[in-house]
Design goal:
The protein is an alpha+beta fold. It has a single domain, classed as Beta Barrel (OB fold (Dihydrolipoamide Acetyltransferase, E2P)). It is built from three helices and ten strands, in the order αβββββαβββββα. The strands form three sheets. A five-stranded antiparallel sheet has the order 5-4-3-7-6. Strands 8-9-10 form a three-stranded antiparallel sheet. The chain has a two-stranded antiparallel ribbon with strand order 1-2. A hairpin with a 2-residue loop joins strand 3 and strand 4.
Amino acid sequence: MQVHIEKANSKEEETAVIKAVEITDEISAAVELLEGGARSFAVSYEDNAYILKAEAVYYIESVDKKTFVYTKERCYDCKYRLYELETMLGGYFMRCSKSMIINLRKIRSVRSSMSGRIEATLLNDEVAIISRGYVKEVKRRLGL
């Protein structure tokens, strides 16, 4: 890939043009960075509201119509549904089962199981199960 940088005369003249054959995760991450950094969204923990950056999220799970967001330190409640978060976060986040979205950047290792599923060990040593229907896409996005 070639990178060209030209000096602009003012802030208003600053632009970035990306020419790509396809929109990959890397291109999406570059666009996200150029547009102002990581996405963030509202969560709550013990009756306090927080703004959580997407990069801190390991995975998001839906249980009994409630959404929980897991980081390295704790589990937060979230008002959004999984499909809303999947759209909001994009990039390195993807659905790995009917009830879970995983951050692909937080995966340490993966291991195939006998049932056709994948066990993904995250950086915080938790294991997330990737359902058979999502295995092919996860492998593609991880480059396996």
